[in-house]
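Long-time lurker, first post. I've been practising inverse folding by hand and with some scripts of my own, and I keep getting stuck on stretches where the structure tokens seem ambiguous. Below is the full token string for one chain I'm working on. Before anyone asks, I'm not after the true native sequence, just a reasonable design that respects the backbone. If someone could post their per-position residues I'd love to compare against what I wrote down in my notebook.
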């Protein structure tokens, strides 16, 4: 495939998804990953993209935009599956769990069919649908307003339910992590729910793929000192992992 055509496709994927994966593009275009890396390096030199581990994002600014749930599900799928499997070690028989919204927490929800019994509350419609098929789980779905295209449940009623819940462990995804600002979300509605999820749980485990360290979202959830464990993929930049260690954040890299 000619270079000009490859560049056009890369730009189109960035416009459509807000992020590109080197491995996914290599498969789609049936070319080597090294060729895609060279193309991305050239685009970065021309200030079109900013490289992140395993892919690239638009260079416009560091503040990313929120992608639809259906798009996020297909990004870094293998990494999210590893994170989800690793998170199971923090679940024990008869535990009460709260699952926040997001594609990585959905991947985690899919792993819970063989752990019993469990009591689970979730603010994520897709996780609720997945968990509803598991006979070992007593499921509570938070009521409230549904965010279209993102499948999270927010608002007054969800917040009131969370204020009456206590859980052993909360499992949450985030939209961005900044070492000064902490955990961040694009949606202020999700922020309110996530703050209450953390408050309701004895322990909070954050599930995040490596790309979350390369962006800033709109609203703060909490500082890093409020979380107990962070699980991320081995694709994460070692500089970020060292920084987490310096800050005393218990980090599991898988």
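-- Answer (accepted) --
I ran through it position by position. Result:
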């Amino acid at each position: 495939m000619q270079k000009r055509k490859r560049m056009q496709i890369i730009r189109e994927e960035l416009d459509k998804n807000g992020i590109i994966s080197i491995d996914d593009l290599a498969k789609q275009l049936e070319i080597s990953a090294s060729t895609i890396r060279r193309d991305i390096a050239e685009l970065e030199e021309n200030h079109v993209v900013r490289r992140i581990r395993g892919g690239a994002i638009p260079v416009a600014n560091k503040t990313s935009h929120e992608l639809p749930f259906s798009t996020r599900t297909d990004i870094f799928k293998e990494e999210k599956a590893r994170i989800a499997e690793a998170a199971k070690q923090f679940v024990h028989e008869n535990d009460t769990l709260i699952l926040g919204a997001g594609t990585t927490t959905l991947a985690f929800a899919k792993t819970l069919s063989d752990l019993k019994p469990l009591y689970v509350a979730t603010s994520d419609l897709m996780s609720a649908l997945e968990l509803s098929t598991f006979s070992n789980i007593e499921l509570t779905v938070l009521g409230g307003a549904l965010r279209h295209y993102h499948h999270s449940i927010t608002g007054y009623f969800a917040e009131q339910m969370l204020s009456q819940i206590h859980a052993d462990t909360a499992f949450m995804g985030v939209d961005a992590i900044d070492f000064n600002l902490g955990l961040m979300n694009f949606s202020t509605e999700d922020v309110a729910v996530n703050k209450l999820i953390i408050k309701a749980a004895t322990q909070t485990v954050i599930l995040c793929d490596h790309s979350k360290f390369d962006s800033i979202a709109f609203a703060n959830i909490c500082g890093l000192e409020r979380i107990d464990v962070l699980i991320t993929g081995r694709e994460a930049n070692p500089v970020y992992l060292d920084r987490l260690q310096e800050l005393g954040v218990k980090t599991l890299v898988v």
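A couple of notes from the structure itself: The chain has a mean pLDDT of 88. Residues 3-17 form the longest helix (15 residues). Happy to go over any region you disagree with.
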